Records
---
Amino acid sequence: MSFRSSITIVASPRSRVGKTLLARLLTEFYAQKGGAVAAFDLNAGGGTLARFLPEHTIVSTIGDIKGQMALFDRLIAEDGGAKVVDLGYESFESFFALAQQIGFAEEALKHAIAPAILYVITPDATSVEAYRGLRRRFPQAVLAPVHNEIFGSAQHRDKYQLAGSGETVVRLPALAPGVRKFVETPPFSFSHLQPAAAVDMPPEVNAELQRWLRRAFREFRELDLRILLADLQSSIRLQS
Amino acid sequence: MAKPAVILVGADKGGVGKTTVARTLLDYFGAHQTPARAFDTEFPRGTLKRFHPDVTEVVNVTSVADQMKIFDTLGGADSSVTVIDVRAGLLSSTLQALSDIGFIESAKKGQITFSVFHILGPTIASLNEIAETARFVGDASYFLVKNRINDTTFFEWDPPTYNSYFKQIKGASEISIPKLNEMACEQVEVASTPFVSFIANKTARDEPANYSFVLRGYVRHWLGNVWSEYDRVKLIDLVSPKAEDSARQAAS
């Protein structure tokens, strides 16, 4: 079995840790690789992701069964596209409780779709405990801690255990304040920077942004390889 | 060959999900490689037959000929378990008929394993039936099934009243069927398949289907809970002790 597509869930039980920025980056990363990408916005406020990526975003809810079907049935659809879920902190528990109950990770693997959880780490006990819970509840999924460097350099490796020897913390590089201003004002797209004049971006800011983007995308490529490796290892284990 | 087992699934009123329980039983025995057949007494058009057409026969339980059909074939059939879905309101009269033809007598002698699944509705009125049926059941294993599948609020009963009925049947056990959300229920109805086929995303003809993954997930979770209730009361041990023994041997 080899994975044709992936589902990446960006999650944290805390608000304002950079989940939506990470989800935007991932969506554009997959879009740049070519191929379809769908980004599911599961934030109570809603709308932020859609303002930046209107052509990719599907505003979702899991409050009722119709919403759950619209989200999860679409996530496991074998349409070959990449899927990104921007999971708002309010829906953290209900999303994973439902995912566990309906056997989401197993079903995704059955459809040759790799489920991965990008977990934005913070040093507080709630967050550490929720991370352990996900390890226990979703042993089939790739669970990758993400360190948002805007919160400083500490990676809390003592608190966040990694599964295998090959695993590392995914780093989301900090954005320089001068760049943030542009990045966080919609409409803004990382991939359509060529007419920089359209957002009135000074060349040095653009250069800084490109450096940042290259670093972030390199992290994603490594993550992609890790998911592939996990897939290979599991198929080797199955054969032996 | 295993001793024949008969499970009567009945209720004193309609709409309490009796057939749903019968369906979970047939799925359960299927999963335990225990051959089962069923009689649907909703003559002439049975609901159970729609979901399990291969093993179900629709009979008129008030007709002597059909009573014979059910009980005379017990020993000969290649199924070790017979599930009888008794039409609403006919539980007492069916038990009476069983008593008349000597079936209850053979159960007492230990020639047949006999169990009753009495499905309880959400109103206290349905408890009266327990008193009525109690005198027939003798040594049968009696299960009082609280079916919550379609209900949000359920059993606002006065515990002393409930217990006074409950105690009339010695050795009765309680089984609780949890709630399954309406949309999942409805989709299985539309699909007209056994629960296990729905979960496996298969049509009634065993072809690949396209049911919602979320709904399949809900049904699997729910059926797992129902089956763990059957495990808890050791239903397999009861109906086919030999099958369980050989399964244990195979496992060890």
---
Amino acid sequence: MTTLSIVTKNLRKRLLATVLTTLSIALGAGLILSILTIQSETEKSFNQTSVGYDLILAAKGSQLQSTLNTLYHVETSTGIVPYALYEATLRDPRVEYAFPFYVGDSFRQYRVIGTSTDYLEQAAPRRGMAYTFRDGRNFEAVHEAVLGGLVADQTGMKVGDTFFFTHGVTMADGAAEEYVHEDHPVTIVGILDYTGTANDRVIFSAVQTTHSVHAPFQGTPEDHDHEHDHAHDDDLEVAAKPENLDAVLVKFKSPASALQVAGMINYPVPANPVIANNLRRDPLFPYREGIMAVSPAVQINALMNIIGNVDWVLRAIAVLVVIVALFGILVAIYNTMEERKRDIAIMRSLGASRGTILRIILLEAAFICFMGSFIGLLLGWAASAAVAPYLITSAGIFIEPFTFSLNHALVLMILIGLGIIAGTIPALKAYRTDVASHLTPTS
Amino acid sequence: MSQSYLHISNVRKSYPDPESGALKMVLDIDDFRLESGSQVAIAGSSGGGKTTLLHCIAGIVTPDGGSIDISGTDIGKLRERKRDRFRANHIGYVYQTFNLIQGFTALENVMLGMLFSGKGVNKDKAEALLVQMGLKDRLHYKPSQLSVGQQQRVSIARAVVNDPELVLADEPTGNLDPASSEEALALLKEVTKGKMLLLVSHEQDVLDRFDRVVALHDINRATMS
């Protein structure tokens, strides 16, 4: 027999009210925690993926669309840019590295990205993180492919297996063009470790591979008569390269160079002939017509601001749910005070101090809040886990649902603290219970 | 060990009259003593201030004046927290309506008496007391599952579980049938041997069981007239 056992007995005695109040707290906590998880993981996922590139050079259009398409593997391309642009960036002394980006095929729901061999060796999916292979090696020839960790796990494909690209990419609404390039089997030569980014759900291959199986295609699948240029030589050096790409991802040696190139591409040529002549000497100047330079960092910030506004609305709703639940605690305990006055008076007559009675009631409120918060944490994790696959397929956002950060701990502590505060009113009523008048009868 | 005693001196207590609102004196005791080991019954009719007297002695109600000295401690002068602890350790209380907590078993109700004493809960001792009360098979029964006689025996066990020097009993047989009443009274007198027992009742057959019976109106000036 302890004070805590009195608390649990009191709660068990009013089991239905206890369970309902606990569940209302759990719902509020679950809502807040899942929003917190999804929001922070989304932000982390976006920031992680964008690390490593200063500019995306893509066809003129929506900058955000281009960013989503190239870095997060969602949305469609804004158009095409000449392959020569990529070659020009490789020659540009200001460029640290550049990769071609070519998308147009898929396998099941996973996109095939055509790029260079260097991509998996030099690019970083996260800051300070290199691509590593769980199995096999990088693609080194035409008709070889490397699977992202998620693709391998979801499809069950392994190194040595062959498959066929499907013409077109699956969009968020499930729509996809359907044509299987059955005359071009592709061999899986490597499987990547998980990176925790959208790159886990794509298939990497050489641009020569994607080009060889898929030339620009107009018309219906029935019309697909393979009139496009097929390069059947597997040597990447000699295989035919595409004339166009979807984008070029560029990392500059200095941020100033990135700014200079972005300005040169995105803004009109100044009227000042001296400046204009200087610009015309830029090695990338000949390609500036019809293209845009996109800073993924700027786009992600803009996107985060949009998400942030929605996020605040969701948080406000969650906070309201919690406030209602806290009032629920107050009302649930307060309503029992009248019937409990006799029990309180009995305990006081047995020597329980007012402080002990106050503590018992506050512990009841804290217990409800603690249980509600704990269940809420599980609910939050469950909700995040339920949303995770949808986010990965529709938005390319990779979230780790079962996280417990300092923010989570803080939210739970605040909830328990507020629960105790909500319990204060009934606790004070209990504290002030008159002993003699409730030890009936009197004579 | 020093002799225990109860000495009530010039204790007065008034309550507002529910109808007129004017203060009405219900207790005015000049001098009343109880010695170690004595078992005394106070006779009084309903509304005569019996419960108020016991509440004052237990420190549940604070008298308007005077002193209640229990073996050297004036309970009225203690701060509330100390008075609560003093009550838990030195005073047992048996009520007419038993005042058991309904959600707790017989054993838990007795242990509850120990919880607030600050000396720890001794489950074996609580069990032994209930066995002594003839409730060996009812340890884990809740009050609603016990007869009124059994409930009063649980109440008596709870009152003496902390070995108090003073046990107060407020009409302890008031709700019992004659057989249960006889049994409860015998047990109460048995377990309070060597302690001070102060019982208030208006039932003559209960009063007849005591060697010393004091009429409340003889000591309470508020009801003398």
---
Amino acid sequence: MEEELKKESQPVTMINPYKLWKIIYFSNEDALTAAIRKSVTTGEFANGIDLILNTYLQYLKMHNEFLGRYMEDSPFSSKRDVARVAELVISLENKIDSLEGQFEVNLEEIEKTTDLISERLSNQPETLFAKELSQILAPAIAAVDDLGKRVSDLEILIKRIDSSLNDISKSIKVEAKKKTEKPSPPKTQETGPTLKEMLAKRENPPSPKVQKPKSTSSPNE
Amino acid sequence: MKDDILVQADTAFHIGETLAQTNEHWLHSTARWIEVLAYDHKPATGLSPKELLWRKNKSKLYHYLGNTDRKYRTPILLIYALINKSYVLDLAPGFSLVEYLVKEGFDVYLLDWGEFEWEDRDLSYADFVYDYIAPSVKRVARNAQSPDVSIIGYCMGGTMSTMYAALFDKPVLKNLVYLAAPIDFTNAGVYDVWLKAQGYDPDRIADALELIPKGFIDWGTRMLNPMANYVGTYTRLWKTIEEDKPVYFWKVLNKWATDNINFPGAAYRDWIRDFYQGNKLVKNQVLLRGRRVQLQRIKANLLALVGLRDHIALPHQTAAALTYLGGHDKTYLEFAVGHGGLVLGETARDKVFPTIASWLAERSDPWLEEE
């Protein structure tokens, strides 16, 4: 059959129905689009759609109300219940967010203040700063110096007292030795307590003596 | 074109052979198409190296790390919308705004909103601005050791950045970049028809749904261009496979487009009522925790980038920022792309990213080594 067809030498031309359909369709699609678009932009179309929409909305509202009442008594949580929980979570998140915002603002302010202080300090000449500081501290330094002098005077005084105390104690010992060697002469004059004894008394004051009423009939008297 | 359709051969046999080959190719392409849609793994996204700087609830503040030396002291904070996920800003290597900015020597941060759950249904724009964006900006400035910051807001992220910029003076917002960010909601295109229709009541929607499901948001976005989003995306994939082109980028894009998140009901109510229906932003009537958002207070340098084919945030919605914001240095640029094209694709990589980087470079303080 192929050979028979080949024998026909004249070129054959015909329309490709596939491509023709494609061209017709796509060239008409634009026209169709424009026509349909024109029809949906009319007031009649809008009114018709609104009629359908409003009917649907009435039905939906009724349906929702009925379902809402049913769900109130139902042991299952409705989407409103779930939404309520979600709203709580969102409000909590908002609170945290506002706190975070405040914290950031405060932190920024602190940073700004710190920067300002350090900037001012860095701008101050060091010698000037030291001078101001020395001026502020001058009375305190003088007081400390005075205190130091007084303490050192006091130390010298204490040393002197200590050495004189040693001398006194030595002389007392010597006196005591002499007394043991010789009979003690009658006391003509009562000598007072030594300095050491006085100091010891100060440190350990004697317990107050309780005065007893004098009795003439005491056998020890 | 004619040559593509016609099959020419010496014999009818050869024509039959060619048709059989095309048929086989189509069968293989279709099989591969099904395989990509049903079985292929999702490609990895958000691959730029990063560290977690701060987290609150489900939101995370990332700091991106790079090998390039830092050139600019003024850090960049990227704020994404509440729809879909923020990894579109760091989609894939070579197609990432984050990666590009880091390579250019910027200190880059991203506020990722995370995925809102039932407990987040009462979050409002006031919460997002006061409790998420403001602390993030503070942390970014502190971490970057800079008294000022630049913000890039994508889509709704740009609108939220505007509210932040109007209410907070410190850290100083030096540069504000809008990527398809709606500011004026006077004529919002298809959304104008849908959201200002008599029967559309955002209070009723928020009341009934409480947490707006991701499917609802996705449906609203896809219905802006239903044919392209529900059919065109997949036929484009088939065409890509049939033409033996790589499908990696389609997969990455599709992953992001279908990766939606729930929308907090309170924020949804505000978004529709105050912005789309009331257009309160440009009227200086938006009140957040008792404080009025006054656009004239924004003195930052402004770069507004728009996509001419954008059907989500129309170009004039972003361009209005030039009129209402109070700064003096204002730039407005248009690109021939859609809403996503400012951060996705070749135009983004070759034109948008370099434009942002050079504009910011001129207006950012240099980073000195001793700092």
---
Amino acid sequence: MASPIPYVRSLMIAGFGGSLAVAAGVAVWIGWVTGNTTLRQVRADWVSMVPMTATAFVLSGAALLAITVAMSQRREGEPVAAHFWRRTAMVLALFVVVIGVRRLLYYWQGWPSPIDMLGFDPGDRPGRMAPLTALGFSFAGVALGVTARRRFYQSAQWLAALVIFIGWIGLTRYAYGGDSTGVFFRMAMHTAVLFAVLGIGIFYARPDGGFIVIWNGDTAGGVLVRRLFPAALVVPVAVGWLRLEGQRAGWYGTETGLTIFAMSNVLIFAALAWHTGSQLHLEDIRRREAEQTVRVEKDFSHAVIDSLPGVFYLYDRNGKFLRWNKNFEQVTGYGAAEIAAMHPLDFFTGEDKALIASRIGEVFATGASEAEADFVSRDGTRTPYFFTGMTILLDGQTCLVGVGIDITARKRAEGKVQELNTQLEQRVADRTAQLEAANKELEAFSYSVSHDLRAPLRAVDGFSQALGEDYGGQLPEEGRHYLATIRSETQRMGQLIDDLLTFSRLSRTSLDRLPTDIDGLVRSLTKSMAAEFPGRALDIRIGELPPCEADMALLKQVWINLLSNALKYTRRRERTVIEIGSRAEAGVTVYYVKDNGAGFDMRYADKLFGVFQRLHRAEDYEGTGVGLAIVQRIIHRHGGRVWAESTVDQGATFYFTLKPDHPV
Amino acid sequence: MNDASPDIAEILLVEDNPHDLALTQRALKKARLANNLHVCRDGEEALNFLFGEGSRPGQLRVVLLDLKLPKVDGLEVLRRLKSDVRTRAIPVVMLTSSREQRDVIESYNLGVNSYIVKPVNFEGFAAAVEHLGMYWLLVNQSPKQGT
């Protein structure tokens, strides 16, 4: 099929030929009306075109124009208009045929046909349409009548070739100068030219078929036709003319002239054939090489497609499979002929069908998409697949090309991961339940400790007291001292139990971090604690204490323990100095409590925060050894650190932070 | 206030531990408050005394209630006391060893009037008993008692 531009250009050439025929016919008519011999016969010594011939050319030209219009309307999808113009062309062509055939019948059977001059007086000249002209119009008329019909256009082109040939005969006669023997070939100069124009126009009126396709084609045939046709038309005529002129000049006789004529033709055509042949030969080799390349490329792509680990598919907008690989047949279990008749959606069922349909639509709309779906084979086996799709333009048609990969293993792994996750969650839940149960047990334990362990102590203390009150008089001094010891130790044990309970509760209670006003807390604590020691000289200096996020109740316990320690270990000083403050270290606030009390030996600093660990004798400074352990646990639960610096008899400083040094 | 003299006031002490009972009685005796004391040894007995045949719970001026009791525990006794119109107005004081926060909260939710943790130290214990006896019997103004 010819590409669009040559098609339109061909119709334009045909239309131009038709217009030229109409214009020339009208011009000759004007010549006859005005008596202008140039328009009628070109040169005074040449024959004139009779009015009937001019009329026939106007009709033929008009028919050619109508065909051109019909062809372009058909191309633009206007079948009604095309039909009308084709009919018009046929009617006009019929008139041309009638004109030609009537004149031929006159020459052949002697039927009278007196209308050639249409009332014009030719004077001294014979005034009839020449027989060759009549033949030309008969052929041209038939050709014009049928060329618009698909079934007949090739016959029309043969006739058109004859029309051109007839015109060529006329022209050649003018070139060589006619003698009396060739009266059959006599025709007007412009008649000959117009026949050639008309014939060529008929060819160009069918740019979609026949000779013009070859003529315009880039095939070897096209090259051959374009090279040899003009040569075949022109060379023999030109060589013949040269030979005639040479003979007329007396350079050689008839035989020699004919020899020169024949040999020149032989030479020129042999050279032309050689040249064209070698060119076509090279062209052909190139073509074969290109074909070979294409074949290699094709083999390669076939190999690639067949060696793909997944399935490959290529189908058009209607879902017709154009290409697939062996894997596709193996996986689906269908044969090539079956697949060719199937639709892509035939390989899916249920929800997947709708999913794939929408994804195919997406591919054609956006250019690419992908999907996960179960690929269903002939025996109903469902295999999870991952499909890709993208558009590809093949031969002007948008198609979908893609591959599908078996994702069974991946799906299985995903399932496994999910299963493991579920198991893990179950384990965590089990472990949490166990921990919660253990915690509950511990809570119940400490609950009964707090309740049941204290009851006997209370009895011991209470009855010792009662003993002392009711029978103290009967006891010696030493006995009363023993009783006092029993009571003080009992109370100490009560204190130990309380401290231990507090300590163990610290791990269980939840941490409520809220913005806490440390400054206010410390000021109220120091005030109430100092009030307990009215006789002591206390110098409590409070520096800057920025607020922080902490559990208020627990933090209060920390300050109480640290401050009461500071007060306890400074009680032998004449003047107690306690400094409370803070400093920033690497973005973390470090709070401290510094006293001028007894201090401790730094060698035992690691024992300072242990439960029941004491660095002083109970006679010197009373205590259960739990206070600093409580402090440490609270600080650790806040994510902070606590540490101390001291020199014996030089006082001690306790530092703590309430969040990690390097916040995560 | 006609019948509000300390002599006719009644104290109900619910206590299972005999030593704590003896010490509490001793402390009340010392404060000269033991004359109108009635003792129950478990929760069930207390409920019988309060709601049983011929009971006159309206006479009670204060109930001293231990938390951990055999059969019916102190919280249940408290709940029954505070949900009955006849006994709702009687002040109840929890006298217990438990410092557990949830016990304190639960008791107050049920409408306890006071919550005292028994100290190990007997002087502290005796002082606490004396103070609360005095307070509820002498200082506190109760609603007018029925006849």
